[in-house]
Amino acid sequence: MPLKSVHITNYYHKNSGGISTAYNKLLEAANRRKRYVRLIVPGEESSVEEVGEFGRIYYVKADFSPLFDKRYRLMLPWKTYIFDSSPIKAILRDEQPDLIEIGEKYTLSLMAGLLRKHIMNVGSKRPMLVQFSCERMDDNVSSFISAGRISNWFTRRYTANYNLPMFDFHLANSEYTGQEFFESTCALENPNRSDRVFNWCWRYLRAAQVKLKDRVFINQCGVDNTTFDDRRRNDAKRRDLAEEFSFPADARLLLYAGRISPEKNPDLLIKTIARLSKSQQHDYRLLVAGSGPGAEHFAEQSERLAPGRVHMLGQIADKEKLADLFANCDVFVHPNPHEPFGITPLEAMASGLPVVAPNSGGLLSYANDTNSWLSDPRSASFAEAIESVFADKSVRESKLKAGVITADLYDWDTSTDALFALYDRMHREFIASPELFDYTASPASTNFAGALTKC
Prior knowledge:
Blueprint: E1 5-8, H1 18-33, E2 37-43, E3 47-51, E4 55-61, E5 63-64, E6 73-74, H2 77-80, H3 87-95, E7 99-102, H4 109-116, E8 128-133, H5 137-144, H6 149-166, E9 169-172, H7 175-189, H8 199-207, E10 216-218, H9 235-244, E11 252-257, H10 267-276, E12 284-289, H11 295-305, E13 310-314, H12 319-327, E14 331-333, H13 343-350, E15 355-358, E16 373-375, H14 379-389, H15 393-408, H16 412-432
Parallel strand pairs: 1-2, 1-7, 2-4, 7-8, 8-9, 9-10, 11-12, 11-14, 12-13, 14-15, 15-16
Antiparallel strand pairs: 3-4, 5-6
């Protein structure tokens, strides 16, 4: 009988975001594969949404997040799962899942520890516990709070001593994201004096002979190659796009699609378009499709540094409209050097749109010099990379063709099928030797993370 899985996250916004897209595709695949998949997310009110015969979304009433992106809500421990009458606990007892996956590292991770220690009981047998790591904690702390040695020290210790031991397995969306677990434990393997307070956990992990490489798995996301397609490019649509925004017919249209938030490094876009606006030969315009906590600041700074060159489109929920936009711009500009994976650059590749991006992060799972224009994340380098897109037609056509081929390899059916197979594999190991999963895993297992660099 197929596993029943429950996925719990605060990172769900119905019509936007790569994480939301991944969960929506998982629910679609649940019906295609006839597997029961449940999603628990915060909502304005508590409600239940059926997604076909096999998918279901539970919305748990929650307040807006006091930090970060105010569009998102936050399920907090004392309101949603600690007490016996808590809504998440009630859902888990009713559903009796074989697998609980938590897609967050902050307010929800404690739930896994409570389940592991049988403090929070939701059934006669403890379900397998998986953490879905869709971003790196060190990148988030650097973007939203502070960068530097102290924050780096804190995030590595938090990851190794709190997040890592809570779960039976960890699932990451790229090797770049998964690498954080190895970097964190490497730091504890060679502790300095300031690490003494944390050494108790590292001694325990070493004594238990934890095979970290056997607990961290990689499953990459996909792209909707049906909607995002280079055949959408159309001279008439291109002319309509220029007329809609009163662009010159020969303007070079740059596109950014995504959240406007500090962790996405949007300031690089402003500095780059400001530099390009000084060109005497070409008229560069930047279209921004998205919203977020930094949208107002972004608009103000853009108008100050590159007046009239940046056009804010807001969130585009209509995928058909967004796909037409992708196919009829000239360059997709992705500024985030710490992108966990990056679905939108893949959508750009599928649309036949040149991708200019940093030469770092999880995006390098698929982006390289044969299908993209990679650059140091500095305005001068980015501006140069954008200009080089137009410098050689044969090079551009070769890279665009390679980009479409790359995107074809990352369809959602393949991604979700691999994910279900991975869940099954984890669960077989879990039920075969449950005693090994207090803080360790089967030494016989192997996985996609085996090639990750160790200390």
